[in-house]
Specification:
Blueprint lengths: L1 E4 L9 H10 L4 E7 L13 H11 L4 E7 L3 H10 L4 E5 L6 H10 L3 E6 L17 E5 L15 H16 L6 E5 L7 H6 L4 E4 L10 H11 L1
Parallel strand pairs: 1-8, 2-3, 3-4, 4-5, 5-6, 6-7, 7-8
Length: 224
């Protein structure tokens, strides 16, 4: 299982240093959370294409970069993030009107396409697009709502996706990746790995004031 650090809890004045630390510890996937101050429940604004592009330039082409668009207008602005250099755009099924068209648009520009769904959204909303998707992200907290704990009840949804993806692969179809995001720490990372997760997004479990990036990553990899 891959670890994709989220930079939300980072000191943005020290992002360059943080990227160097993560890469030196063997991280090869960075997860960027884009919030527009409108769609997420806490009205948080994070950053946009300019910062995404700066991170891309800092990391170079060797590191995989995705952006999770927690925004209302992904169908109008997705191209800005592709042009900023991301490898994968993940959009919310709840926030778009024509998911299939957006997937086609992204892939036609050479960018991978992913769909993310909130905890209360059933897998059935996303499964019709599975054969075209590069990734599915299951949220194990409500996006943008602070002070939440990991939701273990997401297990059944994840296992449903895992089974569908495995069947698709066994039939010669696309090897869609399965990602989880929300409350993942050293104490539950082995649990979600056992559910069949391919990529775990971890934010404060890696980037916090209680330990160094190196020590936190060692604790997580040891727990896996």
């Amino acid at each position: 299982m891959q670890i994709a650090p989220s930079i939300l809890t980072a000191d943005f004045c020290e992002l360059g240093k943080l990227m160097d630390e993560l890469v030196s510890e063997g991280i090869d996937w960075i997860h960027l959370d884009v919030m527009d101050g409108n769609w997420v429940v806490n009205k948080t604004i994070t950053f946009g294409p300019a910062l995404v592009n700066s991170i891309r330039q800092k990391l170079g082409p060797e590191i995989f970069v995705d952006c999770h668009l927690m925004i209302n207008n992904a169908e109008e602005t997705w191209e800005q993030y592709v042009d900023a250099g991301v490898d994968l755009v993940i959009f919310h099924i709840e926030a778009v009107s024509d998911a299939r068209n957006l997937i086609d648009n992204l892939q036609s520009k050479g960018c991978q396409a992913g769909i993310v769904l909130n905890p209360d959204t059933p897998a059935s909303e996303v499964l019709p697009f599975l054969s075209k998707l590069d990734l599915i992200l299951v949220m194990s907290v409500v996006p943008g709502k602070g002070g939440q704990s990991f939701m273990p009840e997401m297990k059944s949804k994840i296992l449903e996706f895992r089974s569908a993806i495995d069947n698709q692969i066994n039939s010669g179809g696309k090897s869609t990746k399965l990602m989880i995001d929300g409350g993942i720490k050293h104490h539950n990372v082995a649990l979600v790995k056992g559910w069949g997760i391919d990529v775990a997004v971890i934010g404060s479990g890696i980037i916090n004031d209680n330990g160094t990036v190196e020590d936190n990553l060692k604790e997580i990899t040891s727990a896996m």
